[in-house]
Design brief:
Elements lengths: L2 H20 L2 H5 L9 H17 L10 H7 L12 H24 L8 E2 L5 E2 L2 H25 L2
Antiparallel strand pairs: 1-2
Helix pairs in contact: 1-5, 1-6, 3-4, 3-5, 3-6
Length: 154
Amino acid sequence: MTEQVFALHVATRNNLLTYLENVSPEQLAQIPTGFHNNIWWNIAHCVAQQQILCYKLSGLNFVVPETFVDTYKKGTYPDGHIPTAEEIQELRSLLISTQKQLQADYERGVFTNFTPYTTSYGYALTCIEDAIHFNNTHEGMHLGVVIALNYFAK
């Protein structure tokens, strides 16, 4: 796998960090009319789904708490709370650490098994490389949602 794949992941995560760090906690939690979730949920969801796509499908333990994944995985919705400064810092750390961990784990060859899975996007994942590539697409889609939510959450 090329370095560009991981560089794209870093770029997407950096864009997500920009919103996490520059939007008020109230705006992070706001669900504009016509939307079903908020900026906070979309950013946390990216971390949760990366864990499922790459680690769970590879038969490995999550590198974040399972309760975090359960709270933000596909099919969940925001609970209405406004994130605290501490929660924002924790999510900031997870955005950075899980990107670095994924790359390090891939380079160390820890992803030796993979359970094939077809995403709701209609894309079949057959190996860890497919999952990493698709994760970039998935996070890019949610970055687009974050941009739209930010526009309407003014």
